[in-house]
Amino acid sequence: MLLAGLAACSSHAVRPDTPPPNEGDASWHAVEQPETVHYQLAMGEVSSGATAFQRVTPIYPVAQLAACPPAVEVTAKLIVDRAGKVTDVRPGNAASAEADLAPYLDATRTAALRWQFNPLQINHWAADANGESHVVDSRTEPFSLDYLFRFTCHAGKAQVTVGDKLASG
């Protein structure tokens, strides 16, 4: 009886495992566009800040995962206000504004609007009568950062890469 039960199991066809669904992930790296304009500091001025302390990873566009297209690159310019909050995300070059890149730029925009930066602080230092230096004036300024987001999809997995670079607002 046991032998008959084992023989019955061996006659059933075994279905191959289905491949895992495609998934998305993200990382980033800095870029500098040729038209980037930097703040010109006066003598005695020193800048600090303009560094990210909170970054949210973009989510690979779900509608694009099924097709698993070749690598897609989107350049985006993050506009940061005096408080360090990202207020706008714009295509960083003409190619990034193309219609077929819209889902990737939208994913970039959604994530980047949640990023937070230390404000860009510009301090003006001067020496007093005793020759000791101290801050005589301080201000915060808006700025922009250029990022390259690289969306890649592999068999069952997608990845995004990104970066930053300081530029004037």
From TrEMBL:
Protein name: Lipoprotein
Annotated source species: Dyella ginsengisoli
